[in-house]
Every structure is written in C-alpha cells, then in structure tokens.
Amino acid sequence: MKLLEVQELLGAINQIGKLKSAPKAVYGLARNFARLRSLMKPVEEARKTIWADHFGEDGEIKPGDERVPAFQKEFNEVLEEEVEFEPYTFTLEMLNLDENEMDPKLLGLIMPLIADG
Asked: What is the CA radius of gyration of the chain?
C-alpha cells in the first residue's frame, strides 16, 4: 500500500466518526486508525525535513513562491513509497448500514478493511 493511500484511508476513517449500533466496526476502525497513524509518523518527519530544506528554519512562503513545486515534488515522492499494512478486517454487516448512513465514497475508501463474508 502506498503512503498516499494510507493518508486517504486515515482521512476516511476520521470522517466516518462514530457509527450508531456498530461497536465491532468502530473497534475495527479504531484499531486500523492506530496502525495507520504509526505508518504516517515517519512521513511527518520527512515532511518537516523537506520543508526545512526548501524553506529554511523560518518556513515562510509567499504566494507564487518558486520553491513550492520542488517541495511538492519531493514530498510526493515520499507519499509514493510502498509500506506493509496488515489491516484489522471486519465484515460489511458489522457496519450496520441499515441504521448507519455512509457516503459511498467513504465506503469505497475503507473497502481494504472489509473482509469477505
């Protein structure tokens, strides 16, 4: 899984929030959130280092700053790195979608966490 995908999955889990009457799914989401956050810690450190390399210690940028594209390119390379992620899976039924409304896009993003059956 690419770090960019990890970042997107974290965002999706965060947006879902607490689901009514779906405690097993909420537990699964929380376990995955913790695992995914640990994968992103080195990314935040890399972002800080790359930022300092491009913008110095003060980190000030202004609109149209010509250093921004180089920073974005280097940081995007970090996000393209592959990492091992063993998800804690749960079934679709555990989401209790009869009682819980969920945006189809969010459901699509969390599909790697859904076990077959």
From this structure: 18
